[in-house]
Recover the amino acids of this structure.
């Protein structure tokens, strides 16, 4: 028996953790208790050295000193302030009026607003609950299919897990030992593609099953001109002018850089060009709408002015946070701090900032940050013991022995993550499973940024899995459970059942799995957003030490020792 335990302590330890979790014990304490218990067992069996436990305090202090993890409370605070200041309500109402006249317009508005909320709030619960409270009654009022309405709201809310600034990407970067900025750059395009897939599904339904996604009736379109016109030509004209300005600035970026720096600049990085050009176009629209409102010229329609004032502030905040991170101007932690400050300023300008709002946001941020920190502490103790009993070697032999090499490993890992996501959320998966998979992926030659984004997309399904998906629980909490009288239409509205929510989530889970397959088949979806590695040819690097100096001043400037000797000579003189 003792020999069996000695040779199989790693798999027994992992199985013990699963048992603890299935029994319902808190994740953080299950990890810590398992780690300490099996550490003592290993010491008694002679597998572990007792001195190994001396590393626990050092690891705990290392977690406390990790600056990257500071981005979690900053981005959480930013999202909560924006969500509680009414930004989601304004976005949903305005974009719903903009897209409402077309079939499927309300569902498209939910997808679009879900992507915007993901890029600003980054909190799934806030996004799903906000859209469920605001959009679901309107969609039910005008005859949307209940399954589609529930599915599109839940799925759009989960975009916060893959579109930067995502909390799961911060944790994945920390666990994989990679840069958060690179993880954000790699996830940006897949997040947009996933948003496009959701919108494409809604468009297909509008084309082939239009009765499921009816358009808003004329009486429900409130953002109209006094003469009844829609005002869309004015909005399209403003968009065309701002788009032309954005393209012009993009083409002239080298010239603008040369003018600003006073030196000739021949090339500007693509990400910097995109961010700066979009900022200029967005600011132009905001200035035009501001001048129109102040002067009362009436050059812009009501919907054009409303869309501009509602969309521009969150877009500028996205550029402020993600733009500075992508350009290398700020670290993710600094970007999160700027985002939190920007959210406070936006809430104050909107007249929504109060001590009660601030207290609630700070309280929730503190709870979530402590939750993450305790799980990380427990995972650290578990991981230390697991490494001591050669757990990584066991996992490596288990996974590298799979047929198919890299492809077989990726298929097995994604199938395992998809299955575990039925029972564990992304925090638990990130802290328990990812540290075990990262060394094997690195040994197989898999890029860890690409691997992290792939796992992030897969772990997003943990919010949508019937019957345990958290996004489905959030929606169930705000969806009508009983028949009620709609105050606008004066009609009795049937409730949304739990089974309708589950059935509505299935197509979007399949879309997420399709995105996983696309990233595996086309790695460039992730790698195209990353900075190219600079490769130096060491054979061509040489130092010419025989060349005589041109003059004494240059030699002193290039040679620190010579400069120091010259300074001593000057002092003696």
């Amino acid at each position: 028996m003792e020999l069996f335990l000695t040779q199989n302590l790693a798999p027994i330890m992992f199985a013990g953790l699963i048992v603890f979790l299935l029994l319902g014990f808190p994740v953080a304490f299950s990890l810590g208790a398992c780690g300490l218990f099996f550490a003592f067992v290993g010491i008694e069996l002679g597998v572990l050295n007792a001195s190994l436990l001396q590393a626990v305090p050092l690891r705990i202090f290392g977690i406390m000193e990790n600056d990257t993890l500071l981005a979690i409370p900053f981005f959480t605070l930013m999202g909560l302030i924006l969500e509680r200041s009414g930004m989601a309500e304004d976005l949903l109402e305005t974009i719903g009026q903009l897209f409402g006249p077309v079939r499927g317009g309300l569902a498209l508005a939910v997808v679009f607003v879900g992507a915007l909320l993901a890029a600003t709030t980054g909190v799934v619960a806030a996004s799903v609950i906000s859209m469920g409270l605001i959009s679901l009654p309107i969609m039910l009022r005008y005859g949307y299919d209940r399954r589609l309405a529930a599915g599109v709201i839940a799925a759009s809310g989960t975009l916060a897990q893959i579109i930067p600034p995502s909390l799961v990407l911060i944790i994945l970067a920390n666990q994989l030992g990679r840069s958060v900025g690179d993880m954000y750059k790699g996830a940006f395009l897949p997040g947009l593609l996933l948003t496009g897939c959701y919108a494409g599904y809604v468009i297909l339904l509008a084309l082939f099953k239009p009765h499921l996604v009816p358009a808003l009736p004329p009486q429900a379109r409130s953002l109209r001109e006094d003469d009844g016109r829609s005002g869309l030509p004015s909005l399209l004209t403003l968009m065309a002018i701002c788009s032309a300005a954005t393209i012009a600035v993009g083409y002239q970026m080298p010239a603008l850089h040369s003018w600003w720096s006073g030196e000739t600049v021949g090339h500007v990085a693509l990400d910097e060009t995109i961010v700066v050009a979009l900022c200029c176009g967005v600011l132009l629209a905001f200035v035009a709408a501001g001048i129109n409102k102040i002067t009362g010229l009436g050059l812009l329609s009501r919907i054009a002015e409303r869309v501009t004032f509602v969309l521009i502030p969150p877009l500028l905040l996205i550029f402020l946070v993600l733009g500075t991170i992508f350009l290398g101007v700020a670290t993710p932690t600094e970007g999160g701090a700027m985002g939190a400050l920007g959210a406070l300023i936006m809430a104050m300008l909107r007249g929504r900032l109060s001590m009660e709002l601030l207290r609630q946001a700070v309280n929730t941020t503190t709870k979530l940050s402590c939750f993450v920190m305790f799980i990380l502490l427990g995972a650290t103790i578990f991981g230390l013991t697991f490494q001591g009993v050669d757990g990584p070697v066991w996992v490596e032999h288990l996974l590298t022995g799979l047929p198919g090499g890299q492809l077989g490993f990726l298929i097995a890992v994604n199938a395992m993550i998809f299955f575990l996501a039925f029972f564990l959320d992304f925090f638990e998966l990130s802290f328990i499973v990812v540290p075990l998979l990262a060394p094997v992926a690195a040994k197989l030659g898999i890029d860890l940024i690409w691997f992290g984004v792939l796992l992030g997309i897969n772990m997003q399904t943990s919010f949508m899995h019937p019957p345990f998906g958290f996004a489905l629980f959030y929606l169930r909490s705000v969806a009508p459970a009983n028949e009620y009288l709609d105050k606008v239409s004066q009609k009795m509205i049937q409730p949304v059942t739990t089974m309708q929510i589950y059935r509505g989530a299935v197509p979007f889970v399949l879309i997420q799995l399709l995105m996983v397959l696309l990233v595996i088949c086309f790695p460039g979806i992730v790698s195209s957003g990353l900075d190219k590695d600079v490769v130096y040819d060491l054979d061509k690097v040489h130092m010419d030490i025989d060349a005589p100096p041109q003059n004494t001043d240059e030699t002193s400037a290039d040679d620190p020792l010579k400069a120091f000797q010259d300074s001593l000579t000057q002092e003696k003189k």
